[in-house]
Amino acid sequence: MPGAVVAQIARRWQVCASQVFAWRCAALRAPSGKTPAIAPAFVPIVEATMIPARPPPLPAPSQVVEIEIGHDESQRLDVIPVQYRVIVTRRPKYACRACEGVVCQAPAPARLIEGGIPTEALVANVMVSRFADHQPLYRQAQIMARQGVLIDRATLAFWVGYGAAEMAPVVRRLKEIMLSSARIFADETTMKVLDPGRGHTKQGYFWVAARDDRACGGADPPAVIYQYATGRAKRHADALLGGYRGIVQCDGYNAYKQLTGPAREDAPITLAFCWSHVRRGFYDPAKSGTSPTAAEALVRIAALYRIETEIRGKDPATRLAKRQELSRPLVTDLRVWFEAQLKTLPARSPMAEVIRYPLNHWHGLEQFLADGSIEIDNNTVERCMRPIKLSKKNALFAGSDEGAENWAAAASLIETCKLNNVNPQTYFTDLLTRLVNGWPQAKIDELMPWCWKPTATP
What we know:
- The chain is of the alpha/beta class.
- It is 43% helix and 12% strand.
- The chain has a domain at 1-80.
């Protein structure tokens, strides 16, 4: 065989396998009937074509024909670690020989931190990593150091403070929108805060208000607002809910009850109490097997929850009709049963105390029977507490009262993003960029997570 032919085939069937890379912004699509896509449509694809390393037997020159008769294909998900980069912005100065003393230069772009090194995207990444992914700042500093970027924890905290301050108008407007709702959920949880000079932490609180009408077919988008306070007194409940008119779903804590007192000048708040709190008191005695009363109480309450499962997502009128037909008789019988059991128990026994709780809050516990939009429990807002508790577990405490306030502001937007299926990283980056560049106050509603649209790229 002529040497030219051999060389031609050898070049085509390379001795070393070659890779041909093709980037396509499309999903990893498998052929019909095979493994489904393993990544969303916007994830780039790297295609590698592997050419056999050893050429086949060489035929006669006149029969050299290369035909691909098929191929095998596999897919694997890959990752590129976070990469940091330096953005250099040059602003040339122009002068005109005919115009003495005139210099033309583009204005400097706005920055979140004047004279600072981070872009809005980097500050957003730090905030989302801290409050959405629950990475304490010292861990983030360690992660950055592994890539040669040496930023101490105090500097990261400084960036977070600037970011939270810039977002403050959006958080305030979010709270205003929340308090205009016909029904909200409310709760509070403890928050340890560093107390400088005393050698230990002090007790603070996160007060939370949430809105989620999806269970009753409501159109209002879900949202949550966190507010830091130094205590748990009524004045802090007023700071969260002051001026609110409507239905508050909450537990039986006394601060909420005082919101409906005669001293209140505006229209009264209707309190709807939580059946989950009632059920919780019976759980441990029933689990231990030492209290048949507790076990029967759980069975009776479970019957109410089965009805709620059937009507979840239905409109308020349908829910109300089902509750009147099925739930009200069960609730009426349950109260009679509670009162009968209380008579058979010692007055100071633990089980007597557990039974007195629902009896003392019965009016609020019955509210879900009169309004189809009211939920049977306060679990909506308690689910919003989970990210806070997870972050507390990792970070242990807030560094200061101001740090706790920043935490509350960032968490409000992050958790609202999650409820509305918005990527917090993308949202925070775009939000900070718009605010830094002078977003008008009159259009602040467009920045709410459920209204927000990413800035179109040129």
